[in-house]
Amino acid sequence: MKNKAEKRFFYTIMGALILVVASTAFFVYKLLSNRAYLERWKDYDECGMV
């Protein structure tokens, strides 16, 4: 019975860790994507073509 509880605890911790890593990776991806988008269109802001 103790072994079953240990497995459940391990899977719960691993699931939470995967969720944190995935959400952090998504946040970093969106941040870098937005930065690249703004960098691409920065020249057009100065010439008034927006």
Q: Residue share in helices?
A: over 70%
Structural class based on helices, strands and sheet pairing: mainly alpha
- Described by the principal axes of the CA atoms, the overall outline is rod-shaped
Rounded mean pLDDT score: 89
Give the strand tally. Answer: 0
* Unreliably modeled segments: none
Supply Rg: 21 Å
- Describe the largest sheet: none
Strand residue percentage:
under 5%
Q: What is the string of helix and strand elements?
A: HH
Number of H- or I-type helical stretches: 2
What gap, in angstroms, lies between the N and C termini? Answer: 66 Å
Task: Describe this structure as you would to a colleague.
There is one protein chain. The chain is mainly alpha-helical and 50 residues long. It has a domain of 31 residues. Helices cover 90% and strands 0% of the residues. The longest helix is centred in the middle third of the chain and has 39 residues.
For this entry, give a set of tags.
90% helix, 2 helices, 50 residues
List strands and helices in order, with pairings.
Elements: H1 2-40, H2 42-47
In short:
This protein is mostly helical and 50 residues long.
